[in-house]
Amino acid sequence: MSTLIVIAKAPVPGRVKTRLQSEFTPREAAALARASLVDTLCAVQFAPATRRVVVLEGAPGPWLPLGFEVVEQRGDGLDERLAAAFEDVYDGTPMLLVGMDTPQLRPELLGFEWHGYDAVLGLTDDGGYWCLGLRTPDPRALVGVPMSTDHTGRDQLRRLLALGLRVRILPTLRDMDTPKDAAYIADEFPSLRVSRLYRRLQHSAHPGLLFEQALGGTARVVATGIDGRTVPPLSEVERWTAPADEVDRLALSRCEGPVLDIGCGPGRIVTALAERGIPALGVDVSPRAVSLTTSRGAAALHRPVQDPLPGEGRWGSVLLMDGNIGIGGDPADLLRRCAELVRPDGLVLVEVDPDDELDDSTPIVLRSSTGRHSTPLPWARVGTRALIRHARTTHLHPTEDWRTPHRAFLTLRRTA
Question: Which Gene3D superfamilies has this protein been placed in (predicted)?
Fold first, then answer.
């Protein structure tokens, strides 16, 4: 029999599984870390052992099952922390230490005989290792071994052999460090807690997260109706991130300053206005969009359009480019908000759908090339005639309907 040790971090958002945050929010990544830890503890709980210990960074939580002792981690680097864990837990019996990143771990992997061996090592396919066992603690076995590299496992094995230890090698496992790792584990081990959570998260992403991925170029994102039919809102991200084109400039020539660009995205319109010397401000709910806009030297504010905004009632023009009339799924409500923002004779310029009669307020779902689907996002798609009907409930009067071969616009002016 032996002592089983789990070295772990408390699953606090932003402090665990940061590499998962390329596709998941910090809270989601922490939830996956917690599920992985619970799966690991469950395997350890049912493996034969004289003691079960969690060597923990952070505070224990309700995820900790009965029957585990808790020892606080100490040391600076991971090599020192691992060495300290063996020293602090040692009670005369052999010790096997595992991490929290291999939730597919099974109890039978931990129930081997130590007879004839001084150390145990289980490698991972990314070059690290998922377990290390020592019959007795020895800092020389760990301190100075480079950690978190693609050769840590090989370096650790060399260190053990250099000390003259007889090493038993356990099967190679896959760590859950990246989104691809999480997808692999969910496919290969579907009954795990972490796998079930992964599948739920795949179909319940926040739309804003996928929009951030699209703007950042980390994934291709498309929008579909509830029925799976592709719709345009995210089909032109490359155009949004490029400088304003000829059609954009034609639209901007109609603007009267100062200009408020609602849903400014990465800021091509606000930038083009600034280059013309026209005061302009972009607003967007996406932090990345605001960051991209300000990095271009333009002004932008991270705020929903329905929240209080600077200069309410004094803007010369309000823009709803790139189909942003769809924001919120209620065009009439958004037009009423625009009427509040412009001055008494101000303009609202709306890019509408080329289909004049289109009036579709079906929610959309964002789908990422990484496999994630968002929760339904309220959205609307309207053509010119439909928008004129919506404008009848506002103080906005249509003044110009114009179009190019692939894009259509309607200009409205506020009236008493």
Answer: Spore Coat Polysaccharide Biosynthesis Protein SpsA, Chain A (3.90.550.10), Vaccinia Virus protein VP39 (3.40.50.150)
| Residue 271, Ramachandran bin (φ over 0: left; ψ between -120 and 50: alpha; else beta) | alpha
What CATH topology corresponds to 233-414?
Rossmann fold (3.40.50)
Distance, CA of 46 to CA of 67 (rounded, Å): 11
Question: How many CB atoms within 10 Å of residue 306?
Answer: 11
User: For 324-362, how does the pLDDT look when each residue is reduced to its tens digit (9 = 90+)?
Assistant: 999 999 999 999 999 999 999 999 999 999 999 999 999
- Block residue for tokens 């007889």: 166
Whether the CB-CB separation of 362 and 376 falls below 8 Å is answered with no
User: How far is Cα 177 from Cα 193, in angstroms, rounded to an integer?
Assistant: 16
CA atoms 331, 336, 338, 339: torsion sign: positive
Q: In the Cβ-directed half-sphere of 383, how many Cα atoms lie within 13 Å?
A: 8
Domain ranges of the chain: 3-202, 233-414
Kindly tell me if the per-residue pLDDT of 299 is higher than 70: yes
CATH architecture of 3-202: Alpha-Beta Complex (3.90)
* Arithmetic mean of pLDDT, 282-293: 96
Residues 6+ apart with CB under 8 A from 60: 10, 54, 70
Q: Is the Cβ–Cβ distance between 352 and 387 less than 8 Å? A: yes
